[in-house]
Amino acid sequence: MKQLGVLDTAFINLEHANTPQHVGGLGIYDPSTAPGGAVRFKGVIANFERRLHKHTIFRSRLVKVPGNVDRPYWVQDANFDVEFHIRHIALPQPGDWRQLCILVARLHARPLDMNRPLWEAYIIEGLDNIPGVPEGGFAIYTKMHHSLVDGAGGSSIMSVIHDLEPDPAAVPQAEAVVTADVMPNSLYLASSAAVNNVRNTVKMVTGGAGVLRDLGKMAIGMAQKKIPVPSISSPRTRFNTPVGPHRVFEAAEFPLADIKALKDICEVKINDVILAIIAGGLRHYLMHHKELPDESLAVSIPLDMRTRRGMTDENNQVGSVFVELHTNVADPVKRLAGIYKSSQEAKIYGENSPLVDVLRLAGVMSPALTRPLVNAYVNNELTRHLPLGITSVVSNVAGPTFPLYSAGAQMVRYYGLGLLTPGVGLFHLIFSSNGIVTLSIIGDRDSMPDPAFYRECIEKSFAELFAAAKATPKEDAAATAPKKASAKPARKSKASSSATANASVQKPVAKKARSSASSSAAKSGAVKTKQSASSSANGKVVPISQPQS
């Protein structure tokens, strides 16, 4: 039995029917690599069950303290039923990319059962009309509560539920040891809560003094212009309205080689290139709806805090900073240069500001106090009165640099799915693998009723940035890029949003591609199942998915 940490508890306290606090992922698999060239649902379940014992979080169930007067506990569920957590469904007709997006959005909108281990997986068949998906290919959509895992930890979980070889049965396995906790009684939980409340009070007092001290140092640094002042006056958009219970999902894909080429030409970071693509996409989308503000939009970037405060036993070790997107700049190369400068300033600010941990406030107090406040905040739509307008959260999660398999089927594509908060109805998640960068979005359906059009805006932004960068002489691009910040903070912090992996998995050639042509497909260009050197050199998008109208 283990008590949740402060930040892990924050995600439990923030759970609401309109904004469930789970993250997810969608993998697409090629069964031709499996023994016999096919995969059965029973084989997928057996593969999951065989590997689940390697990580305790899959059997961890939440136990609340009586009266919610203390943080809850994780216990190893003695009645764990793997077949409850893994479901088998088929894509409705016509089985195209649009149908897959609708299905995944609906699955992602549903809250998890808080009385069971907080994860689910869906094996999805019927991907019959998605060009680039191998014949017989299937998808696995997974979702897991954020209290169990953060973005940086999520990549390690992927390696837990996947194999490194197509024939796992041929590899000797250690004997599985499954443990289960004895359910604690109410007297034990109540007495532990009394002791913990005293400890927590002491920690709050000493921690508050430390925060005040750090705030004082930060204020002095800002006054001396050693620490940049963050932008807190970004304009609000349609994505800052109260978030409803329904979701949309979409994804765009880009050759990793082209992203790296842009990075080298403009002398910036890969994460800056991704932010510039998103900035251009938001600019096109809001201009189309005649809603583009005159001032720059800003996004929140998660920070991996493991290197900042050391390893802890909490599942979540994440903070956040704000970065301006310079959406008020028309030139894509100059916009990228501005984003680079803003991201460097945000990094310095994040390394010196205690406010990057502001999310922990939702887990400091007991759930008995925090839960009613969260419900009142969401139910009364108090987000309308927030002065800060963060258009989106943008997270960049490192993908594997080696092939992964599920029941022998090789993963050929992966899309990450984030979560929405009451005041931010758009989440971008970037994932790189197999030489492809996927940029996935989860949005509030009321705020973004046209996700396919937004994907087209993202693809248009990438094409414009690539063309402009290639047309700009390298010396001019270097002159446009701002100099790196000279301030050297005492502590270093690693941004999880800037983590990108080089992929070594070769993309398999599809045996059969069934197309459902649309007008947007014609605009986006032909879909290819095998990337050529010329496509990368010309900056073309090479999606596995079928663009939708």
Automatic annotation (TrEMBL):
Enzyme kind, highest EC tier: transferase
Residue stretches making up the O-acyltransferase WSD1 C-terminal domain: 316-465
Extent of Low complexity compositional bias: 495-508, 515-530
Pfam families, per database record: WS_DGAT_C (PF06974), WS_DGAT_cat (PF03007)
Pathway where this protein functions: Lipid metabolism; Glycerolipid metabolism; triacylglycerol biosynthesis
Entry keywords, A to Z: Acyltransferase, Glycerol metabolism, Lipid biosynthesis, Lipid metabolism, Transferase
Reactions catalysed, as given in the entry: an acyl-CoA + a 1,2-diacyl-sn-glycerol = a triacyl-sn-glycerol + CoA
Xref: SUPFAM superfamilies: CoA-dependent acyltransferases
One GO MF term attached to the UniProt entry: diacylglycerol O-acyltransferase activity
Domain of life of the source: Bacteria
Transferase among keywords: yes
Domain O-acyltransferase WSD1-like N-terminal: 6-274
UniProt-listed GO biological process terms: biological process involved in interaction with host; glycerol metabolic process; response to hypoxia; response to nitric oxide; triglyceride biosynthetic process
Listed Basic residues bias regions: 485-494
One cellular component (GO) term of this entry: plasma membrane
Disordered: annotated span: 477-549
Enzyme Commission designation: 2.3.1.20
PANTHER family xrefs: O-ACYLTRANSFERASE (WSD1-LIKE) FAMILY PROTEIN (PTHR31650), WAX ESTER SYNTHASE_DIACYLGLYCEROL ACYLTRANSFERASE 4-RELATED (PTHR31650:SF1)
Family recorded in the similarity comment: Belongs to the long-chain O-acyltransferase family.
UniProt protein name: diacylglycerol O-acyltransferase
